[in-house]
Amino acid sequence: MAILKIVKKDTDEAFLRKKSRPVEQITPRIRTLLDDMVETMRYANGCGLAGVQVGVLRRIVVIETDEGLFEMINPRIIAMAGEQESEEGCLSLPGEWGITKRPMYVTARALNRDGEEYEIVAEGLLAKAICHELDHLDGVLYTDKVIRKIED
Ligand code: NI
Questions:
Q1: Could you give phi then psi for residue 146, rounded to 5 degrees?
Q2: Across the beta sheet with 48-50, what order do the strands follow?
Q3: Cα separations in angstroms, 55 against 9, 13, 24, 108
Q4: Distance between Cα 72 and ligand 1 center (Å)
Q5: 133 is an active site residue
Q6: Inter-residue contact 99 to 84 (CB < 8 Å)
Q7: Does pTM top 0.85 for this prediction?
């Protein structure tokens, strides 16, 4: 496994704005990438990481909360409800936080590393993380959705 370099907004925003393409086949290379993304996320103390953030324009996301580790390939949100306003940050924008408005409940579907489709019914932090990471796949950053900046 390897710690990957995280693409930062201040030096490479144009790359972070690119749209990621679906994974067509889950190869050993994709599984290694998932392993490396998990290791990189943990090393950076993050709770989510998208492929684009490590220089790979594929629809791949890893998320880890108290509820467990989720590896999501070609993820999509199929339902959302409610609303939450909470603090949000991003490993591509270190040292910055803002308050965003996100759905409180999200249902998402994705493929796991074995190519099997599964569903996550998420609430609160996990719902927010799913929205944040899936936004990355379309070049959207949480700063686009900040309703209040947090000043230190
Ligand atoms: Ni992020």
A1: -70, 130
A2: 48-50, 60-65, 68-81, 105-111, 117-123
A3: 12, 12, 18, 24
A4: 15
A5: yes
A6: no
A7: yes
